[in-house]
Amino acid sequence: MSTSEQVVDSPEGWVAEHINRYVDTDGADGHEWQPGVFTLLLTTRGRRSGKLRRTALIYGRDGDAYVVVASQGGDPRHPAWYLNLLAEPEVQVQVGADRFTARARTATAEERARLWPTMAGIWPAYDDYQTKTDREIPVVLLERV
């Protein structure tokens, strides 16, 4: 994934403003989104368009890996960024000022069972989102390459 390509920021409104502040300040404004809740920027390649798409996600840690949740607020469909990384698992990540390439993978059932409570501890609404949908909300590990 080339970092020199133009990135299309998918979200609109306050999320787009959050991403712009995050990028413009190398994460100084935006990394800590709310007290104790930290976000990273994930860039995936669009599975149909081929364009680079960036979104902001709450994250946790599991050893050296970053952990994100494909919740989409409990929508019955997976978020586009998740479908994109299934098609192309090489992604770009920005955590604060640190930018790196990572390989994304869906957590195994055992990993998900262990990581879900951690992520719901960071963002309790994840538990609510899971009750709103029949799909099992994926937990994703981002491993630096």
UniProtKB/TrEMBL annotation:
Molecular function via GO: coenzyme F420 binding; oxidoreductase activity
Family matches, as InterPro entries: F420H2_quin_Rdtase, Split_barrel_FMN-bd
Catalyzed chemical reaction(s): oxidized coenzyme F420-(gamma-L-Glu)(n) + a quinol + H(+) = reduced coenzyme F420-(gamma-L-Glu)(n) + a quinone
GO annotations of cellular component type: plasma membrane
Entries under NCBIfam families matching the protein: hi_GC_TIGR00026
Sequence similarity: Belongs to the F420H(2)-dependent quinone reductase family.
Record PANTHER family: F420H(2)-DEPENDENT QUINONE REDUCTASE RV1261C
UniProt-recorded name of the protein: Nitroreductase family deazaflavin-dependent oxidoreductase
